[in-house]
Specification:
- By secondary structure, this protein is of the alpha/beta class.
- The protein folds into two domains: 3-116 and 353-367, Enolase-like, N-terminal domain (Enolase-like, domain 1, 2-Layer Sandwich), CATH 3.30.390; 121-341, Enolase-like C-terminal domain (TIM Barrel, Alpha-Beta Barrel), CATH 3.20.20.
- It is built from 13 helices and 15 strands.
- A seven-stranded parallel beta sheet has the order 5-6-7-8-9-10-11. A four-stranded antiparallel beta sheet has the order 3-2-1-15, with helices on both faces. A two-stranded antiparallel ribbon has the order 4-13.
- β2 and β3 (41-47) form a beta hairpin.
- α1 (60-75) packs across α3 and α9 packs parallel to α11.
- The structure holds 2-succinylbenzoate and magnesium ion.
- 2-succinylbenzoate is lined by residues 55, 135, 188, 190, 238, 289-292, 315.
- Magnesium ion binds at residues 188, 190, 213-214, 238, 260, 289.
């Protein structure tokens, strides 16, 4: 496989409703897309870098710079046998996994298309459909939160995750448990607490949550190990896990019982699969997190989620929960059973809508 050209695009897509977490609110998404020409095959990837360096240090600006100045020169014209080699070629650049994932995942799309295989099959996926949950942002009112949960359950979603932050934690969980005693419920703190908050987090044990996601520091595995010893509720790590080495440290120190894998945060499919395999060997279930992706990133998430150890419902949900109109054809849809059928067409299995992508593009650069 030889990379001939890449087109970087920044598109702007407005969320149907603002998404609030403990670190801020997202409304207009700025999304960096990579279109790669690999042996004449058009292949696609998406960077999940945000508008601000609040979830991770990467932003759309840093991802663009790293792709343009460093990753493209490392890869252009280089002859490789398979997409699985790309991750190691990018090793000279430390970190910047969201920039790396944007181009690395495009190589996987290209290889799958060249082999006329669905990407899920190329990755070794074992599922025809993936179980889906929703991630619900912090809502202005309790009634608003209940309405969002009702809506997701009516649509068939298999589990509910809500965002929490100090001052907005035990009370919404208690209220939801009262109204929905049997629902699979979990919370995500996005690093908003400190180890001294352990008594408060321990109070959540009373509500038999499936997990509490990333309560403590984004780069602090050690404190999570100390916290997990005090909690019955399983801790799931998100922000802390940037590669297989972090996963190993978290497992060995018992800092978590579950891991959320995000393609952007870990640098693409090769790294994601290594983490998946390590977790599987250690009986740690994984699930696929979301980053408010457009259809391109969502399609890659679906392919990855077809691997066997993605046994818990992920945050990968229908296009229509986010966008008035997505940028792929068909849009991602969820069945009445709360699953997404893994596409059977070659590559990512959804067609990018070029005309729509062009009309949403605010910045574009072709490298060849
Ligand atoms: O922590 O999982 C997170 C969105 C942006 C940044 C971080 C997170 C999230 C979500 C949304 O929870 C998941 C989604 O629906 O895409
Ligand atoms: Mg999270």
């Amino acid at each position: 496989m030889r990379l001939r050209k890449i087109t970087l695009r920044e598109i702007h897509l407005r969320l149907l409703s603002p998404f609030q977490t403990s670190f801020g609110t997202s409304d207009l998404r700025r999304i960096l897309l990579v279109e790669a020409d690999i042996d004449g095959v058009a292949a696609w990837g998406e960077s999940t870098a945000g508008e601000n360096p609040f979830y991770s240090y990467e932003t759309v600006e840093t991802a663009w710079l790293i792709l343009h100045d460093y990753l493209w020169p490392l890869l252009k014209g280089r002859e490789i046998a398979s997409a699985s080699e790309v991750w190691d070629l990018l090793a000279p650049v430390r970190g910047h996994n969201m920039a790396k994932a944007a181009i690395e995942t495009a190589f996987w799309d290209a290889e799958a298309k060249q082999k006329n295989l669905p990407l899920a099959k190329l990755l070794g996926g074992a599922r025809d459909e993936i179980p889906c949950g929703v991630s619900i942002g912090i809502q202005p009112t309790m009634a608003g939160l209940v309405a969002k949960v009702d809506e997701a359950l009516a649509a068939g979603y298999q589990r509910i995750k809500i965002k929490i932050k100090p001052g907005h934690d035990v009370e919404p969980v208690r209220a939801l448990r009262e109204k929905f005693p049997r629902v699979r419920l979990q919370v995500d703190a996005n690093s908003a607490y400190r180890l001294e908050d352990a008594p408060l987090l321990k109070a959540l044990d009373a509500y038999y949550l499936v997990m509490i996601e990333q309560p403590l520091g984004w780069d602090d595995i050690f404190s999570h190990a100390q916290l997990q010893r005090q909690l019955q509720t399983p801790i799931c790590l998100d922000e802390c896990i940037h590669g297989v080495e972090h996963a190993r440290a978290a497992i060995e120190t018992r800092a978590c019982q579950i891991i959320n894998i995000k393609l952007g945060r870990v640098g693409g499919h090769t790294s994601a699969r290594r983490i998946h395999d390590l977790c599987q060997a250690n009986s740690i279930p994984v699930w696929c997190g979301g980053m408010l992706e457009s259809g391109i990133g969502r399609a890659h998430n679906i392919a990855m989620s077809s691997l066997a150890n993605f046994s818990l419902p992920g945050d990968v949900s229908a296009s229509r929960r986010y966008w008035a109109e997505d940028i792929i054809q068909p849009e991602v849809e969820v069945t009445r059973q709360g699953t997404i059928r893994v596409p059977t067409l070659p590559g990512i299995g959804y067609e990018p809508r070029l005309d729509r992508i062009e009309s949403l593009t605010k910045r574009r650069e072709v490298l060849d």
